[in-house]
Design brief:
Helix content is 12%, strand content 13%. It has 60 residues and is α+β, with helices and mostly antiparallel strands. The protein has a domain of 36 residues. β1 and β2 form a beta hairpin. The chain starts with 9 loop residues before the first helix and ends in a 7-residue tail after the last strand.
């Protein structure tokens, strides 16, 4: 079993973790409604996905 010879310093550990942060969620403008939505997700208000009706829209 591999065992480290020296303890990893906090500086080196934190430099390695510098790339682990999550970025902001990308949003795209919907072509039909003009509202922002997540790409590759069903629009819950209209029920449309890639130009097709997937879900029945909610009644308010």
């Amino acid at each position: 079993m591999a065992v480290p010879k020296r303890k990893t310093s906090p500086s080196r550990r934190n430099m390695r973790r510098a790339h682990h942060a999550l970025g902001p969620n990308p949003y795209v403008e919907d072509k039909d409604t003009g509202e922002l939505r997540r790409p590759h997700h069903v629009d819950l208000k209209t029920g449309m996905y890639r130009g097709r009706q997937i879900l029945t829209p909610k009644e308010d």
